Amino acid sequence: MLFWLVVVAASLCVVASLGVISLAARDDLAEVGYIGGFFFVVSVLPLVHGITVPGVLYGPNPATMASVFWALPIASVVALPVMAPRRFRSTAHRYWRAWVGAWMIGVLGLAVALLAWPAVLPFAAMGSTNAVLVAAASVTMCVALSAVHLRLYWIGRAPGSFAVACGYLLVGGSALVWVGRAPFTVGFWFAHALDIVGVFLGCVAAAVTFRQGTFTRTVIAPLIAHDPESALELGLDPLVHRFIADLEAKDLMTRDHVVRTATLALRVGTELRLGAEDLRVLGLGALLHDVGKLEIATEILAKPGRLEPDEYLEMQRHAAIGDEMIRQSRVVADCAPVVRSHHERVDGGGYPDQLAGDRIPRLARVVSVCDAFDAMASTRVYREGMGADRALAILREHAGSQWDPEIVEALARVLGPGVGPVLPSALAEVGQDLAGGAACCVDALPESLIPT
Fold it and tell me: How many Å apart are CA 103 and CA 109, to the nearest integer?
């Protein structure tokens, strides 16, 4: 029973993991490749475990246990680049094919060696101190990988992220078999079931999602991507795409501005160590902060010059209008305070409610800083952008009166030296399927909001 259960299931898992790796190679999705490599290792070595089960093709042999003892530790090393800090990730991703390919060849070689010479690899006895320590390390790594995707699920609410998180937990749970002292117990069989189900959740769920009609880069990659904008984009409700498409139809400048503002806000929110739920609300609020401009006359939005006092008062209405529009949908209603308050000032001189200090929702203060930075740094209808350095200097000059000083400094750390306002992001395609072509423009915010 063990022979057929493991051989058939592990073979299917190998096929599933190879499918994910091939998708990663085709579209150059580094992190997909790392995760495919992880599941490949925890499929191939358990396949050896099944083939060498005593009493079928082999007599009593150490390869049966050695293969599964080392499966999770080796897989954890393959997936280590997924946990790398952001500053090292680009280097790791550049060489992901070599990394994953080398480990695949090495694991296949190890599998062949175990089949040919079952005693080639040592292992710790079930229940021993060494076995428990290795199991604990493997479980810890799987929990850490799962936590990454569970966080992304809370940001984007995409079922695929939740499935991958569960897959890691289940595979990690299978390592607990080494805490037991004998095979063929209830726990022994349960561990095998955890491993099989975990691999299928991690691999097959992604493949099924792909076959449902959405292309790899926006479906499979965000399942295991670190950046919250990818997670948010994956889980966006069609209503949000519709809002952004309508903004593009109304004013191309506004559409691209809100996308850049949302990208920057999510990165600032990450720098501020906001929780996953706050990042989700922040991202949605930043994407929709100018949705009220759908009700503002186009001639005011696109006016190639300063606004007249009455036009400026009309423009100010967009914050309250956006709040009213968003509160009508339960899908995005929780980000309404961000939309309403993104033009409030910490000194109480903003609009529409003249809130001051901590009375302004913190997420709205984040959007306010990122909104102003992009508006000042980017080229507008009637003037060239002043550039990132000048825009940041103005933000710092007025920190404490117009903007929150803590958030301004967080923005400065995110930008780093010599970084411009245009940021690549997974959010760049939001609404494009509905709106048609993309544009590369900026928002035309009222000039009076920008200190001189």
Answer: 10
Tokens of 425: 């992001």
| Full pLDDT tens readout for the chain, 452 residues | 778 887 888 888 888 888 878 877 876 777 778 878 988 998 899 899 889 988 889 999 999 888 888 888 898 899 888 777 666 666 777 788 999 999 999 999 999 999 999 999 888 887 788 888 888 888 888 888 788 767 666 665 666 667 777 777 777 777 777 776 655 555 556 666 666 666 656 565 554 544 443 433 333 333 333 445 554 554 455 666 677 777 677 767 777 788 888 888 888 988 898 887 788 888 888 888 888 888 888 888 777 777 888 888 888 899 998 888 888 777 778 888 999 999 999 999 999 999 999 999 999 999 999 999 988 887 665 556 677 888 899 999 999 999 999 999 999 998 876 544 444 444 444 444 444 433 333 333 233 333 32
In angstroms, rounded to a whole number, what is the distance separating the alpha carbons of residues 133 and 140? 11
**382, two tokens:** 């009637």
Could you count the other beta carbons within 10 Å of the beta carbon of residue 167? 27
The half-sphere exposure of 1 on its side-chain side, counting CA atoms within 13 A, is: 3
What DSSP character marks residue 90? H
- Could you give phi then psi for residue 399, rounded to 5 degrees? -65, 135
Q: What are 94's two structure tokens?
A: 């550049």
- 378 SS3 class: coil
Give 1-33 as a DSSP string. -HHHHHHHHHHHHHHHHHHHHHHHHHHT-HHHH
